[in-house]
Design goal:
Largest sheet: 10 strands, mixed
Radius of gyration: 21 Å
Distance between the termini: 29 Å
Order of helices and strands: HHHEEEEEEHEHEHEHHHEHEHE
Number of helices: 11
Bound molecules: S-adenosyl-L-homocysteine
Number of strands: 12
Structural class: alpha/beta
Strand order of the largest sheet: 1-2-3-4-7-8-9-10-11-12
Strand content: 15-25%
Mean pLDDT: 93
């Protein structure tokens, strides 16, 4: 089993079981995440027989960086997993820090009509260690510190809930990577039972909801999940979430030309979000070669923005990153039949 998949509590239980002191688990954690060793032998304050036990039962295997593509302020990674499946992660350099967009599944079953990631159905969930390693390996490769993580790569995080929460606990641990919970954002298409579970965990992690439409008819056309959990149910649970956690929620709204970008959509959106402590992130659609939708014009996006503003909705327009290296939102994928897109092998 991969050692990067354990929370510190779980590691303590392992040490307890073999009759070792629990604080030894903390020392191992520090070797892994503070000092970043690549073998058990380097853990010099751990006794030989414990090292041998760890070696027999656990490994520090890494993902393989298959390819890497570098753009302006953006680096996209293609990783190979141990079972040969592939996933992507994207590093974005912002003025406030380095943000990594990580994947949570191989493929995705949500079937949103505009998204590239779902063209390959879910093959499997990522294990917690496979999400943790995306961070460790990008940091090692670029010799940088990642300050923010967004779970907006391939997959639906709340369709892999347990591993995603475990991942959050591992990277948030002060004896480990120590990434602040407030610097982690989980984005979901709106799986209500999991939003409820999540809100009861009392984590300080940010929640983003992929809304993308202002009414049910439109949203059901764009996103299958809306047939299971519709907008009013979703907004009810979000209100509950905001009340309980006192945290602001982000709504993501992709701007699709002539589909959801009309003035009436903006008014409708402002109306349904009225009174919710939230902000709307308008996302200029990134066109992909397989999907018909077109991006709204700059003027349309600005008009939409103005209507929301006028109606007292906090709104921002997402900075466009990485469309040249197909690293932008919705362009990440697990199926690599068309290798030509990767033209900058490293
Ligand atoms: N499944 C989660 C995580 C994916 S996040 C979710 O749905 O939230 C990726 C974000 O990018 C989502 O808001 C998604 O709807 C959006 N997205 C998908 N395809 C896109 C595209 N082509 N251009 C811009 N954003 C896109």
């Amino acid at each position: 089993m991969n050692i990067y998949g354990f929370t510190r509590n779980e590691l303590e239980d392992i040490f307890d079981k073999i009759g070792e002191k629990k604080f030894k688990a903390t020392q191992v954690y520090e070797w892994l995440y503070k000092k970043r060793v690549n073998s058990f032998d380097e853990m010099t304050n751990i006794k030989k027989d414990v090292i041998d036990y760890l070696k027999q039962n656990y490994n520090l295997n890494k993902l393989e960086i298959l390819k890497k593509q570098v753009g302006n302020d953006v680096v996209k990674y293609l990783f190979k997993l141990e079972d040969n499946n592939k996933i992507e992660a994207v590093l974005m350099k912002h003025d406030y820090g380095n943000s990594l967009c990580v994947s949570s599944q191989v493929g995705c079953n949500m079937g949103c009509s505009f998204c590239e990631s779902g063209r390959l159905k879910k093959v499997r969930n990522l294990e917690a260690y496979e999400i943790v390693l995306q961070i460790l390996q990008v940091e090692e490769d670029l010799k940088i510190r990642i300050t923010h993580v967004v779970m907006m790569g391939i997959g639906e995080p709340f369709d892999n809930y347990d591993n995603v929460i475990k991942f959050v606990k591992i990277v948030n641990d002060p004896k480990g990577i120590e990434l602040g919970a407030r610097h982690i954002t989980i984005s979901t298409c709106g799986i209500i039972p999991k939003i409820k579970e999540f809100m009861n965990l009392d984590l300080q992690v940010n929640l983003a909801i992929s809304l993308h439409a202002s009414n049910n008819e439109l949203r059901s056309k764009l996103m299958n999940i809306n047939k299971a959990y519709n907008i009013s149910e979703l907004l009810d649970v979000i209100k509950e979430y905001v009340n309980k956690t006192n945290r602001r929620v982000t709504f993501e709204y992709i701007m699709l030309k002539d589909v959801n970008d009309k003035e009436e959509n903006a008014k409708e959106l402002a109306n349904i979000l009225k009174g919710i402590n939230c902000y709307v992130n308008l996302i200029p659609y990134n066109e992909t070669s397989h999907i018909e939708y077109k991006k709204s014009s700059k003027e349309t996006i600005m008009k939409f923005y103005d209507i929301l503003k006028k109606n007292n909705i906090n709104v921002t327009i997402r900075k466009e990153f990485g469309s040249k290296v197909s690293a932008a939102c919705g362009q990440l994928r697990s199926n690599y039949e068309e290798e030509t897109k990767w033209n900058m092998h490293v």
